[in-house]
Amino acid sequence: MSSFSDLRTRLASALVMAVVGLGAIWLGGLAFGALALVLAGLMGWELHRMLDPDAPEGRGGATGVVAVLLVTVFTFYQSGWIALAGMALGAAVMAWRMPRDKLIFGLYFTLILWAAHSLIVFRGSYGLLFVLWIVLIVIASDVAGYFAGRVFGGQKFWPRFSPKKTWSGTVAGWVLAGLVGVGFMSTFNLSWGLIPISALLAFAGQLGDIAESAIKRHVGVKDSSNLIPGHGGVLDRFDAMIAVSALALILAYFGAFSGAQG
Question: Given Cys at both, which of 76, 105, 173, 260 links 141, Cβ 3.0 to 4.6 Å?
Answer without folding.
Answer: 173
